[in-house]
């Protein structure tokens, strides 16, 4: 999907890691929520409360999933899923543009 139709955008940004990761919430009429954001190069750890699907629109990163010591390489055009109530680590290699979908 190239664009979202008939949505509400929350103006206030979500800002993490001293501004190195930012996003804006996109709210859909059916109650679905997504965030659109940018991650600057660095290493980050995130926690989830809901299942998330991270679609990487552009960029280069590695992800480490809960309970796994290995790192998986992800680039623009790929996506990955993170379970609810978990934490995952990211190594962002270059500016990364992403869309995160929250699954209830």
From TrEMBL:
GO molecular function, one term: uridine phosphorylase activity
Top-level taxon of the source organism: Bacteria
E.C. designation(s): 2.4.2.1, 2.4.2.2
One cellular-component annotation, GO: cytosol
Keyword check for Calcium: no
Pfam families: Ppnp
Statement: the UniProt record of this protein carries the keyword Cell division: no
Keywords linked to the UniProt accession: Glycosyltransferase, Transferase
Catalytic activity annotation: thymidine + phosphate = 2-deoxy-alpha-D-ribose 1-phosphate + thymine; adenosine + phosphate = alpha-D-ribose 1-phosphate + adenine; a purine D-ribonucleoside + phosphate = a purine nucleobase + alpha-D-ribose 1-phosphate; guanosine + phosphate = alpha-D-ribose 1-phosphate + guanine
Enzyme class label: transferase
Entry similarity comment: Belongs to the nucleoside phosphorylase PpnP family.
Function: Catalyzes the phosphorolysis of diverse nucleosides, yielding D-ribose 1-phosphate and the respective free bases. Can use uridine, adenosine, guanosine, cytidine, thymidine, inosine and xanthosine as substrates. Also catalyzes the reverse reactions.
Name of this protein: Pyrimidine/purine nucleoside phosphorylase
Native source organism of the sequence: Desulfuribacillus alkaliarsenatis
Gene it is expressed from: ppnP
């Amino acid at each position: 999907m190239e664009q979202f139709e008939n949505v509400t955008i929350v103006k206030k940004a979500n800002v993490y890691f001293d501004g190195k990761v930012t996003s804006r919430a996109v709210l859909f009429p059916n109650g679905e929520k997504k965030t659109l954001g940018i991650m600057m190069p660095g290493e980050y750890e995130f926690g989830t409360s809901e299942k998330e699907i991270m679609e990487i629109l552009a960029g280069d990163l590695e992800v480490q999933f809960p309970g796994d010591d290995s790192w998986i390489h992800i680039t623009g055009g790929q996506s990955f899923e993170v379970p609810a109530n978990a934490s995952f680590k990211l190594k962002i290699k270059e500016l990364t543009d992403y869309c995160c979908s929250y699954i209830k």
